[in-house]
Specification:
about 40% helix, 2 domains, binds iron/sulfur cluster, three-stranded antiparallel beta sheet, alpha+beta, Nucleoside Triphosphate Pyrophosphohydrolase, Endonuclease III, domain 1
Length: about 350
């Protein structure tokens, strides 16, 4: 452990100026260039923050989701007017589709209640639908250049280590304390850069598991002797295992039976129709996969049904020509299964 042990000299709160300078100098040398860091416009920053809440930067950027979404909905007005189908299609692949609808609600609220101008104070931002403490703090810092209590998972990990804070980071008291530290430690002369820097330090140096203390610019401010043991989290919520039994069936015209969801967490999305396990007691699935959503681990089984007349149609089921598959918003696990099954049958 000695190799990793930081060379502690002073707490960041006792040496704020030196702490800010060390962080700022490091970021000036290695800081990454992301599209949302090149703008001060609140709208694209809001889009990036919503996307990044539950999706990795590599996915959001590498697969082009961010730029495509902004091309399709370049401003609040275009997003506010978006219908469900085009909105969900633009979000397809990012998962957690509630974020897309919330983003549209936020756009509508800004247009209706703020004449289309983003508010720049925390209370008004928190009043917007879909905007919580994290998003409000991100907008304050990145769009309006104000110090804020901006704490994401990376920052929280840095704080818990640097302050040797052994309380669970997901408890309310720790969340409030970390926000206060973020605010107090922020460099008032360059809040945008400061907040970006500490987030990036968490991503690249003070990583989960084994941090790179040897090259950390904040090592002399870090109280923690065994950083691998931090952060502490509350015990995880138990995973629930689910099985889904879906059918893949074509009619005589080659159309595929799909189901349009309503009233569920995938409201508005399309998927293969689900049926009960007992329908398939003696049949082998043609396709199987596993995916995780929140606290669920789902085992998806898809069965080929050759006789379209034998299929019991349910509300929301519809025959769809394969040429239309690319325009429909499909939940990712079902998009993958269709990619495999179309052409295989
Ligand atoms: S990487 Fe993290 S744990 Fe290591 S010295 Fe830096 S802040 Fe402390």
């Amino acid at each position: 452990m000695d190799r990793l042990k930081p060379r502690f000299k002073a707490s960041p709160l006792a040496a704020k100026t030196q702490f800010r300078k060390a962080l700022g100098d490091w970021f000036a040398r290695v800081g990454k260039d992301y599209p949302w860091r090149r703008t001060r416009e609140a709208y694209p920053i809001l889009v990036s923050e919503m996307m990044l809440q539950q999706t990795q930067i590599a996915t959001v950027l590498g697969k082009g989701y961010y730029m495509r979404f902004l091309e399709k909905f370049p401003d609040l007005e275009s997003l506010a007017k978006a219908d469900d189908q085009s909105l969900l299609k633009a979000w397809e692949g990012l998962g957690y589709y509630r974020r897309a609808r919330m983003l549209r609600e936020t756009a509508r609220a800004i247009l209706t209640n703020h004449d289309g101008v983003f508010p720049d104070d925390e209370a008004a931002l928190l009043d917007l639908p879909g905007v919580g403490h994290y998003t409000a703090a991100a907008l304050l810092a990145f769009a309006f250049g104000k110090p804020s209590g901006l704490v994401d998972g990376n920052v929280s990990r840095v704080f818990s280590r640097i302050m040797a804070d052994f309380s669970p980071i997901d408890e309310h008291a720790a969340i409030r304390r970390h926000r206060q530290w973020a605010l107090e430690l922020c460099d008032p002369t360059s809040p945008r850069i400061h907040h970006q820097a500490i987030m990036e330090l968490g991503q690249t140096i003070c990583r989960p598991g084994r941090p790179a203390c040897e090259i950390c610019p904040l090592a002399s401010f870090c109280e923690c002797a065994e950083p691998e043991k931090l952060p502490i989290k509350k015990p995880p919520v138990a995973i629930t295992y689910l099985h889904e039994y879906a059918i893949f069936c074509r009619d005589s015209a080659g159309r595929i039976l799909l189901h349009h969801e309503s009233g569920t967490r995938r409201n508005g999305l399309w998927k293969l129709p689900l049926r009960s396990a007992s329908d398939f007691a003696k049949i082998e699935p043609a396709y199987q996969s596993e995916y995780t959503i929140t606290r669920y681990r789902v085992f998806l089984n898809v069965y080929l049904i050759e006789d379209a007349d034998s299929v019991r149609m349910l509300d929301g089921d519809a025959w769809i020509h394969p040429d239309r598959l690319h325009e429909l918003p499909l939940a990712a696990p079902f998009r993958r299964s269709l990619d495999r099954l179309v052409g295989m049958d």
